[in-house]
Amino acid sequence: MKKIIYLVFVVLVIGLLVVPVNAQTTIKSVGEGQVEVAFTYAGYLNSDKVYVAGEFNDWNKNDPEWRMKKKDGIWSLTKVVAEGEYQYKFTVFTSGIVSWVLDEDASSFAPDGYGGQNSVLIADANVTFGPRIIALEKQMASVNQGFEYHGYARSGYMVSSNGGAASNQLPSSFRLGNEIDTYVENTFAKTFSSDNGSWMKASFMLVNKNVEHSTWTTTEGSWEDDGLLRQAYVEGSGFDFAPHINFWAGKKYYGRSDVHISDFYWRDYSGYGAGIDNVNCGKGKFGMAYIGHSGYEGDYFDGVGEYSQHNIDFRFTELPVPGGNMEFELTYAYAKGDDEDIDNLSDGGLAVIYNRNDFYGATDGTTTTAVQFGTGILAGDGLGSSYATWMFEDARSVRFLTYGVANVSDKVDIMPQLVYQSDRNKYGEDEDISSIALGARLVHYITNNFSMQYEYGVDRVEQEFSWNSDEYTVHKITIAPTIKLDSTFWNRPELRFFVTYATGDEEADWASEYEEDSGLAYGVQMETWW
Description:
Elements: H1 2-17, E1 23-31, E2 34-41, E3 49-54, E4 69-71, E5 74-82, E6 84-94, E7 97-101, E8 108-111, E9 117-123, H2 131-144, E10 147-160, E11 182-193, E12 199-210, E13 228-237, E14 246-252, E15 257-259, E16 264-267, E17 271-280, E18 285-294, E19 300-301, E20 305-306, E21 308-321, E22 324-335, E23 345-359, E24 363-375, E25 396-407, E26 412-424, E27 432-445, E28 450-464, E29 469-484, E30 494-504, E31 518-529
């Protein structure tokens, strides 16, 4: 076994050290606004075929008119094109595998939209480039290539009708006009690519959250004080041994899915691990991952280590069905305790998801419908999650949800949601809870930059625990005049001014800044992503 591992290691090292020879391209004028371009390339001489693909032939990777010929150790092709600028790459075919190769001696370079670069042909024989300019351009292309910065942020000020800053949300799961925090995600990524078409991307997400309204202090003893590194992982694909499979390892948001108007992540196997995805199965794609997640309290057992939930997740996605596509997810989870305070646990979960590229077949938009089932540590709060080791071993949970965005007209979009969950034996025998969250957000575009948002939601909870048995209902409505750059539902940034009113049963646990069974709040908020 050790010999095999060493052999694989040596092969990988040799593969990383192999660097193909660069190409050279020359241009000369043939009159009447046309130039003759001589493409030459001295790499991949053992390949079956090499083509030139670019804007001049609609990026056809194997256009017979743009096939290069090999002679005297050089791939070459001469073509006549109209004067202008064209982005392009070489496409190298080796044993059925296609590699998109950069011409590193091109006149210039441009982002390819996938974290890499395209070569740029400046088809003008009268244009000359000094050696220093060319060298500087290549250096800048190398420095900037594949760098990404994107993120998410929200911040605002919410005031109760009694005049104080709201330190607690109204007891509703619907988020518009009901968020009290400042939350920021900053993601930095760098893509590294090879001439054989393989690439790897390193991603890092820094998060900070402030639930207080002070502009210079945060709550002591919370991770929000100094922020948190939520993601740190590397992924890659296009490797010669498996060109169509994506590999990843590290700390990652894995396969997260949420309902936007309630910020409910119904699927979130985030944690530490590794996996593969984008494996072509003919019809659909396959992926699998191992995700480890340790206890929030740092529980430690002698002879075991820190208490951890181990998740092995299998997913089949993009399976074509009438009206859309299906996803099937199967998860196995286990956690080892000390057999005294916490037992060893081993449980399973299942999810079936149906996605449509329209709104239930009625109008333009999107739709997602899902059914989830889980047992033990994959039930209750652990349903669709990578960590919930406090669930009772006989717990059983089922969740049904459906949501989407309907483009009703050029002036109106609406996003409804229905989420129902039933937990049996959640914390112990016959300790049950069921909940339903039903609501919608309607956006009316008055102008291209000004809209009115209206959100209504009702939450119903019935619970029966050994220490408490009750049921309650909460209704919440928000009106929010909004300023934005474009009249589409997902366009951000947004500046919102809101008024929110909620009413319901006393058992809903209303915070002290509100009445015993109702609450009114108003404020401002911004939300953006990029």
